Automatic annotation (TrEMBL):
Entry protein name: Cytochrome P450
Cofactor(s) essential for the protein: heme
InterPro entries xrefs: Cyt_P450 (IPR001128), Cyt_P450_CS (IPR017972), Cyt_P450_E_grp-I (IPR002401), Cyt_P450_sf (IPR036396), Cytochrome_P450_monoxygenase (IPR050121)
Keyword Phosphoprotein included in the entry's annotation: no
Family listed: Belongs to the cytochrome P450 family.
Keywords (A to Z) from UniProt: Heme, Iron, Metal-binding, Monooxygenase, Oxidoreductase
Species in which this protein is naturally found: Desertifilum tharense IPPAS B-1220
Amino acid sequence: MHLPNRLHVPAILQTLQVVADPVQFLDTCAQRYGDTFTTRVLGFNSPPVVFFGNPKALQDIFTAPAESFDFGKATHVFEPLMGKQSIILQEGKAHQRQRQLLLPPFHGDRMRAYGRTIAQITQEAIAHWQPHATIAIHHLMPDITLQIILQVVFGITPGQRYTTLKRLLSRLLEDITQPAYSSLFFFPPLQLDLGKWSPWGNFKQRLAQIDRLIYAEIAERRQQQDASKTDILSLLLSAKDATGAGMSDEELRDQLVSLLLLGYETTAASLTWAFYWIHSLPSVQSQLRAELASLGHHPTPEQITQLPYLNALTQESLRLYPIALISMPRMLKVPLSIASQEYPCGTVVIPCIYLAHQNPQTYPQPRQFQPERFLARKFTPYEFLPFGGGSRGCIGAAFSLYEMKLILATILSHWQLQPLSNQPVKPVRRGITMVPAGGVSLRVVERVAHFQTPVAPSC
């Protein structure tokens, strides 16, 4: 069967191109072929992989029955890190069960209860700033988001285990975001455990250290059964499915690691981009600061997160360089019609978030940062999809947006910052997301005196 706009380059070269510079790869393909093209980017023996950026195509994919797809064969690269029980790798009833267990802590009053912790962690991270200091935002944001995950998701309070886990995780996550290291996950023949001096053996040993700490935390929490704790691990420990069964230790470990990987570097990268845009465009910063100041002293987290311009700014930052470039890959188990074209079994279809967000018909002047677009209209889930879509959309989407807005507001409500350079930055790959090349460094100017950050919980 004919597949649209095939790339006539060996599969191994396509894979290396998309690993090394995915934005350039997608831009080049889109310029040549439009918003739909066929690649082979899953290693040596890659099946056909079709990228889609058209809203109609995305709607057809996201609304198709889940039984049409095999998710495991398209997401196997995540298994060594996230584990076999990760929600990312589950299908059918197993996926539905895990999603039902995982969703409640990320919504409603439970999620909003985390606002004070997010603000407190952020306040502590900036407490020792002084005027004229230089702040590397690209280092600060991962530190803050990792602490939020450890305290809000894992429920670990600062202490020896917290410090050790934070150190091990930050080092491992730093390494696996490098192209050379992350390439190991795309090429199984390179996954040879020859001891700690071999790349894969080193990875396995480091992951085992982290796993021991996570399993120790799970074991202690099962014994404590503290009903007053509201972190996500505690809620998952008490969660029961329709049969009355809870999650096993292995399931809990795999979900915690998945939440860590999906919510750490990704959110940090989006925040780094937001700080870049805010301090590169004076009109944006002026409008945002005026909106924050309008709340007066001690606004609640909910007052902050409902601000229209702050929300629009956060959405525009996620549009221009989304948390992930693609939504969950899906391999067709049955033929499927997508945007009026039939695709055969075995085809991997990828709803491409980046291509959808760069569509000039949806977003005029797509490479310009314009928060006003999100004030002027509401986009469909097939036009704006920073967290994916359909039954495989990110379960932490609402939490991530909430977290981003509170971190931005907390820092901007304490300090006036300015860029060190007015030079534009380019995106480079870091793990599964895109970050500003060379990072984003800002100079501390002075304290903001006319209003303060939120300190009161809303619940």
